[in-house]
Write a structure and sequence with these properties.
The complex is a heterodimer of chains A (about 270) and B (about 600). With about 270 residues, chain A is mainly alpha-helical. Chain A is built from 12 helices and no strands. Chain A has one domain: MetI-like (MetI-like fold), CATH 1.10.3720.10. Helices cover about 75% and strands about 0% of the residues of chain A. In chain A, helix 3 packs parallel to helix 7 and helix 4 packs antiparallel against helix 7. The relative contact order of chain A is 0.15. With about 600 residues, chain B is an alpha/beta fold. Chain B contains 20 helices and 22 strands. Chain B has an 8-stranded mixed β-sheet, with helices on both faces. A 6-stranded mixed β-sheet of chain B has the order 18-19-20-15-21-22, sandwiched between helices. The longest helix of chain B has 18 residues. The chains are: A mainly alpha (about 270), B alpha/beta (about 600). Chains A and B meet through helix 8 and helix 9 of A and helix 14, strand 18, helix 15 and helix 17 of B.
């Protein structure tokens, strides 16, 4: 696909990130949990390329494990948000004029909510497990996609092949499966990638505020937070690497998704 | 008196880059247009007529190669440096495109757009440019030009927008106006008005006009001379009336016979298709499709030769005239059982939110249709034809009753409603848009079958192939994507899909409007044939009386949402064409 050519840096950074998280532990056998109080807060050196944290754990191994934790929550959350967004969008697209308008006003209200505040409220009420955090991020992440899907449907509904299928006696499920969804594949793919970036950001924000997955499991966000606490003693290797990894994930998702969206608009 | 021609082309060839190499799209064209003369260039799509027109003001895509001499007002364009060439052409040539909507900037008032050209080319001040723009708008017949110059393009109707385009083309006082299909998006009455405007302008300004169109009969009435193009060559040129009355080239004859016209034998399709520029061969390019072709035709590249007052390249020119008259050749109305009864049908469109003012698109329309019968619904654009069809098909909310085969459609819900919907199928004006771009041809027809309960994929595919054969297409098309089909093929696929639902009623919305003349003739023949074989009822919506007269047993004339007259086709044609009681806006005609 041309997208991969035009967005080569984005594609590479995402591919490297996933490789880093998935295959890293095999290439770098150090344990992310083994304590070594003699070597606490060591700056980067040959045996610990990214240094160690305040408990002497190897930071590189922790970044790999943290990335896995992050993706393990962010990817299911993205899938959940994706399914919810598409379903709501299709429902609003198929509904008759009045219910459709009502659904859209509800969506407007949801879109107006500041996501972080909703996440914080949810996280302060729910017990924090991987599943609950995942559901929380999924349930708060789909509003924008629903709006896009409904807009695309409104545009497609004017097309003559849709009239033709209706005249052939097609029901809503058939229309969605055969005509609407296949004609929005490019839009859906692009926004799926955007959603992944959003989920990583939401999870990182939650973890940074101490509301993510609970210790000893670490995500990039919680690593960033514990690093910030030690900023006074100049342990930059505990702050910069997780921050850069989050930034790389967001950049990769935004740029690749943008490339796909542009491709779709052609 | 031999004045300097406004435009003189000598042995002009144009080659365009396509797929990495140059292909000859226009070959060896020599013609001239005198000041105050309208020359029509007539041809089907792919004949090279638009490419030639764009070559004159150098508007071709980069990489195009133009050879031969183009002389504009006595000046050879080939000798000019690129920069002054652009300025010279900008001032001397005005161009009007088919789609004024695409050519006008929606964010600028029309006055500002016209003034912009005047300021760029003539160096006028802002104020003088604006005043000139107002004068030009007035000249092309925009009422209250002073006020309307400040309006934006979307505030003008289609016909008015085309007038704005023409005034913009006239802004710098050109010697030559190139109008590329200036009327094809307009209905018949507006078409006549625009062509009359062009005729007036060339009289008053001694403007040379190059009028490009696919519609030979329309052009013949509004031009002084006509040049017929086929596959990149000018095959015949002469006085417009002369070319119409006594065409020489066999292609011109075939084109005239393929054009549906009122009071003339049904159109005859031209077998085969026009060759692509990639596969041009020496000799007469029409020879493979010509019934009169003989060995010399594909051997020598023919030159224009004079005969009977005009020029043609035909080796065996036609000498016996083209047109087979057949007055009142209306089809007898079949006396079948009643298929459809529409009574007191009205459609309301509401504007704005909630209870805004409602406008009736269709008012109190009643008619019946027998099995095997074809009703032509004719009228100007905006008269409610399409709304009527959509209401009959239950696609829009309506008042009144639509009874199909004795069953009131409004009373049907759910499964029964869906089954009833399948009994009525629809064929659209734009064939490409009526096929889902992500479905192959086989999938599109298969979908229609699947929804009708054909569960077995193998059986669906066989049936789809059989349906394609019925509409005259090969089953090799089954795996093709719609974007690779020609307009005529796509329209046939759309008909095959409609037939797959085994309908009793087929609604055709301008079925031939976007097709070339020879393709359209083939499609009309197919529709006549299908009606006879399946006993289908047709409702044909068209603004083209000639098309209606080919298919319809009865005609219904619509105006402002009402059916103002309904009757036998022959009688209606006499009334509409002959009577003066119909205002020009009612005359959806092309007689």
């Amino acid at each position: 696909m041309d997208v991969f050519k035009s967005r080569l840096p984005a594609f590479f950074s995402l591919a490297l990130l996933i490789l880093f998280c998935a295959a890293g532990p095999f290439l770098w056998p150090a344990s992310p949990t083994r304590l070594n109080p003699d070597l606490a807060l060591a700056p980067p050196m040959w045996t610990h390329p990214v240094g160690t944290d305040e408990l002497g754990r190897d930071e590189l191994a922790r970044l790999m494990r943290g990335g896995r934790e992050t993706l393990e929550v962010a990817i299911p959350a993205t899938v959940l948000a994706f399914v919810l967004g598409v379903a709501y969008g299709l429902l609003a697209g198929f509904a008759p004029a009045f219910p459709s308008r009502l659904l859209m006003r509800v969506l407007d209200a949801l879109l107006a909510l500041p996501t972080l505040v909703v996440l914080l409220c949810g996280a302060s009420v729910l017990p924090l497990t991987e599943v609950s955090v995942c559901v929380l991020i999924g349930v708060t992440g789909w509003f924008g996609l629903a709006r896009l899907v409904r807009g695309e449907m409104v545009a497609l509904r004017q097309r003559e092949f849709v009239h033709a299928a209706w005249q052939l006696g097609a029901g809503p499920l058939h229309m969605a499966r055969v005509h609407f969804l296949p004609n929005m594949v490019a839009l859906l793919a692009a926004n799926g990638v955007f959603l992944l970036g959003d989920s990583v950001l939401s999870l990182s924000a939650l973890s940074f505020l101490g509301l993510g997955v609970s210790p000893p499991a670490a995500s990039w966000g919680s690593m960033l937070q514990s690093g910030i606490l030690l900023v006074d003693i100049g342990a930059w290797w505990l702050i910069l690497p997780p921050g850069l990894l989050i930034a790389a994930a967001l950049f990769g998702a935004a740029s690749l998704g943008g490339g796909m969206a542009r491709e779709a608009a052609r | 008196m031999i004045a300097t021609p406004a435009l003189a082309l000598t042995r002009v060839c144009v080659a365009l880059p396509r797929g990495g190499r140059l292909v000859p799209v226009v070959e060896d064209v020599s013609l001239s247009v005198a000041p105050g003369e309208i020359l029509a260039i007539v041809g089907e799509s792919g004949s090279g007529k638009t490419t030639l027109a764009l070559a004159i003001p150098r508007l071709l895509p980069p990489g195009a190669v133009v050879t031969g001499d183009i002389e504009l007002a006595g000046q050879k364009l080939g000798a000019m440096p690129a920069r002054s060439l652009r300025e010279f052409c900008g001032a001397k040539v005005g161009v009007v495109f088919q789609d004024p909507w695409a050519a006008l900037n929606p964010t600028m008032s029309v006055g500002a757009q016209i003034a912009e050209g005047i300021r760029l080319h003539l160096g006028a001040s802002r104020r003088a440019g604006w005043m000139r723009a107002v004068e030009l708008l007035d000249e092309v017949g925009i009422d209250d030009a002073r006020a309307r110059a400040a309006d934006y393009p979307h505030m003008f109707s289609g016909g008015m927008r085309q007038r704005v385009m023409i005034s913009a083309a006239l802004a710098c006082g050109p010697d030559l106006l190139i109008a590329d299909e200036p009327t094809s998006g307009l209905d018949a009455a507006l078409r006549e008005q625009i062509l009359e405007l062009l005729a007036r302008l060339r009289r008053e300004r001694r403007l040379a006009v190059l009028l490009i169109s696919h519609d030979i009969s329309l052009m013949a009435r509004h031009s002084d001379r006509a040049a017929v193009f086929y596959a990149g060559r000018c095959v015949e040129i002469g006085g417009a009336a002369e070319v119409m009355r006594a065409p020489l080239h066999r292609y011109t004859v075939a084109l005239l016979r393929a054009s549906p016209r009122v009071g003339v034998a049904p159109p005859a399709a031209i077998p085969g298709t026009m060759p692509e520029p990639e596969s041009f061969v020496p000799g007469c390019r029409f020879a493979p499709r010509c019934a009169h072709a003989a060995p010399p035709c594909d051997a020598v590249t023919p030159a224009l030769g004079e005969m009977a007052g005009h020029l043609s390249t035909c080796v065996f020119p036609c000498v016996d005239g083209a047109i087979v008259q057949s007055a009142g050749a209306t089809l007898p109305r079949p006396a079948g059982r009643e298929l459809l009864r529409v009574s007191k049908l009205s459609v309301w469109y509401r504007h704005g939110w909630g209870g805004g003012a409602a406008r009736a698109a269709v008012r109190d329309v009643s008619f019946t249709l027998a099995a095997g019968e074809c009703l032509g619904v004719v009228g100007a654009s905006g008269s409610g034809k399409t709304s009527l069809a959509r209401a009959v098909l239950q696609q829009v909310a309506h008042d009144g009753r639509v009874v199909l085969e004795g069953c009131d459609l409004a009373s049907l819900r759910g499964r029964a409603g869906r089954a009833a919907r399948r009994r009525m199928q629809l064929v659209f004006q734009a064939p490409a848009a009526s096929l889902d771009p992500v479905q192959s041809v086989g999938a599109a027809i298969g979908e229609a079958l699947l929804l009708g309960g054909w569960r077995d994929a193998r059986a669906r595919r066989d049936r789809a192939a059989a349906l394609l054969a019925q509409v005259g297409l090969a089953d090799s098309l089954l795996d093709r994507s719609p974007s690779t089909l020609s307009g005529g093929q796509a329209q046939r696929v759309a008909i095959a899909r409609a037939l797959a639902a085994e309908p009793v009623l087929l609604v055709l919305d301008e079925p031939t409007a976007s097709l070339d003349v020879s393709t359209a003739a083939g499609l009309l023949a197919l529709l006549r044939d299908l009606a006879g074989r399946h006993g289908l009822g047709y409702i044909v919506i068209t603004h083209d009386l000639a098309v209606a007269s080919v298919l319809a047993h009865r005609l219904a004339l619509m105006r402002d949402g009402r059916v103002v007259e309904i009757g036998e086709t022959a009688q209606m044609l006499r009334d509409i064409v002959g009577s003066t009681s119909f205002s020009p806006l009612d005359r959806p005609m092309d007689a």
